Amino acid sequence: MNWTAIAAIYKFEMARFFRTLAQSFISPVISTSLYFVVFGAAIGSRIDQVEGVSYGAFIVPGLVMLSVITQAISNASFGIYFPKFIGTMYEFLSAPINFLEIVMGFVGAAATKALFIGIVILGTAALFVDLQIAHPLAMLSFLLLTCLSFSLMGFIIGIWASNFEQLQLVPLLVVTPLIFLGGAFYSISMLPPFWQTVALFNPVVYLISGFRWSFYGLADVPIFVSLLAIGGFTVICMGVIWWIFRTGWRIRA
Amino acid sequence: MTTIVEIDDLKKVYDGGFEALKGGSLDIREGEILALLGPNGAGKTTLISTVCGITNATSGSVRVGGHDIVTDFRAARAMIGLVPQEISLEPFETVIRAVRYSRGLFGCKRDDAHIEKVLRDLSLWDKRNAKTMELSGGMKRRVLIAKALSHQPRVLFLDEPTAGVDVELRRDMWKVVAELKASGVTIILTTHYIEEAEAIADRIGVISGGQLLLVEEKDALMQRLGQKQLCIELQQSLNELPEALADFDLDLCDDGASLVYTYDTAAERTGIARLIAALTAEGLNVRDIQTRQKSLEDIFVDLVHNTGNKEDAA
To answer: What positions belong to coiled-coil segments (chain A) (predicted)?
Structure first.
């Protein structure tokens, strides 16, 4: 294992993040605050409680997931797409490193950034609502696995994309709707029975449900199903990446 | 001399069916400068890309320092530095950080002394803290070389290092290459300028249509292919060639104002002295004389044509 190379990629990617630290920090704080104003204060004042939790507190796990997933995807996809775009990909291909090391460097950095954003949002949320974390270890595991798996997914998108529009396509068309429909702002049990069944086909439901359980002990689906879902998703992404590097798809002629 | 890169029957067929390399074999000697000469689309870049791991070969094998580039890719690639044809650099990164990053990618521990030496040798030290996007084209290319040298490779591939570079910069580049050779690095460069191959290479490989037509010592090749033309400008124009000059391989040009004599520098006698004597005897006054090396294009035509004939005969 070429640890020096992994560290080099990781540091290089993190440096990009630190160059724009203010933006990286301020934008999630502002957007989270806006969500709290709109959903927490305006709408939340009319919704009393969801299963014993104040609405403002109820939406925190969903908000964190929303930002973490979006950030993980955009960081990882941009991170690997940029070398493709400017032509520096040749260096990764000609260096004595294998695919696993490249992925560890890029995905590791993207996941770290997403984790950082997630923590910032949690901190911001704590200013607005009374935050309880019933299962801190589970909370951390869900957070880490989400950062990792969606960074892997972002990496795949970055490899697949052949222009900047495509880079935005999957996040905008698939991921954001899935998160909004995944119970970020409501409990699945609030839906009519038919739509509850439909919702169970949305993978993000399992993620948000599990994450919310780690805060308030409330879940739409059993916790082990949530863990299985996020674990399975991580494995699928790893499999796709393994295949990409094996075949050189979109990378090596 | 030991062989450092062994290329054996290397073939590359792209997905569309285009055969970029048709099975060339080549041994590169340690410490030499090998110039791969060929027109655009000849397969030069494909050859380099395959050796460096950017393109997968369809068949055949490559060993660098005895290490197979597929089964033992870490050891093989650790020995190689690659300077690509296109200038591609992280625009917002500073020179020194970009070069350090390359060293890290190759798994080498940070070594500021070495990086400083590389940057100084390439006259980039003063620009070490400049962002790469602020540099001129020539400097950017030198940054690419610095990146390729950051991990102390024993073999350096330079893909068209002087394409689109002005004369002065080209000479600078030749100087850099000569210094690298002096430091013991084996250099393989591609070019379509014959003057470049002539100026710096020890051996020249001619590649065209995905085939390695020949690899020869530069001096031998230049001599073998060294047909030259002597252009004689006359004081009075001629309507036709005088009878007495019919024995010479002469052409009338510029409406009879000059004569072009084609001769072989490798031949025992070039016939120049005899020609001048004949001109004097004919009473033709010479205004000016110049000689011209055969162009690369001519050489290619000859080579490709000859190879074609051989194939037909076989």
So the answer is: none
How many residue pairs bridge chain A and chain B with CB atoms within 8 Å of each other? 74
Tokens standing for B304? 């490709």
Q: Complex ipTM above 0.90?
A: no
Length of chain A: 253
Q: Which domains does chain B have, with CATH numbers?
A: 3-223 (3.40.50.300), 227-293 (3.30.70)
As beta bridge partners, residue B24 has: B10
CB-based contact A4 B107, cutoff 8 Å: yes
Give CA–CA dist A107/A73, Å, rounded: 10
Predicted local confidence at residue B311, as pLDDT? 46
| Bridge partner list, B197 | none
Name the strand (E) or helix (H) holding A26. Answer: helix A21-35
Residue A20 is predicted with a pLDDT of 81
Q: At B16, which amino acid appears?
A: G
**What's the rounded Cα separation, in Å, for the pair B98 and B100?**
6
HSE (side-chain half, CA atoms, 13 Å) at B101: 21
Query: If DSSP codes are grouped into helix, strand and coil, which group holds residue A47?
Result: coil
Segment B117-146 mean pLDDT: 93
* Closest residue in A to B13 (Cα–Cα): A253
Q: Where are the domains of chain A?
A: 3-247
Tell me which residues of chain A have a pLDDT lower than 50: none
